[in-house]
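WARN no homologs supplied; continuing
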Amino acid sequence: MMEEIELIIEDSKERMDKSIEAYIEDLKTVRTGRASLSILEQIRIDCYGSQMPINQMANLSIPDPRSIAIEPWDKSTIQDIERGLLKSDLNLTPSNDGNIIRLNFPPLTEERRQDFVKHVRSRAENGKVAIRTIRRDANEEIKSFEKDGHISKDDVKHAHDDIQKKTDQYIEKISQITENKVQEIMEI
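OK structure emitted
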């Protein structure tokens, strides 16, 4: 039975790892004061009769900390890319010179920075809730073994303590990642 308890703990650890990865990916889409190609990952462009990711249509580069250059491989798609960027929720106006589209990131105002910080903290709380849900699921699964009479109360207590330690570690990871992102946002 102890092997099954170890499997439950290992499974909960893997699920918590995936929650952390999802949280990190989610934070990549939050805009900071500097240019980042990751904010373009979610944008799909209507082109050739389908929705395509922008990185499959153009070379993306960061010529300076406050701008992104998008150079389409097929120059006939430049209008489609520009239209897609305008429709996106980036709140940036692309400038098109016929060959390259530039996205300029203006410096964030203090109010806008605070909005982004609130947004990041809200996402962090969602990540922490996901971790706690994994803990609850694992604890319920372990309790079911106790109800069936397969393990003792002491074993249940040790398993719950192990899961709680893991939960505390992962919640601390989310807090640290959040504080790093907040510092990045607040950087002028």
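The chain has two domains: 2-29+109-186, 37-104.
OK
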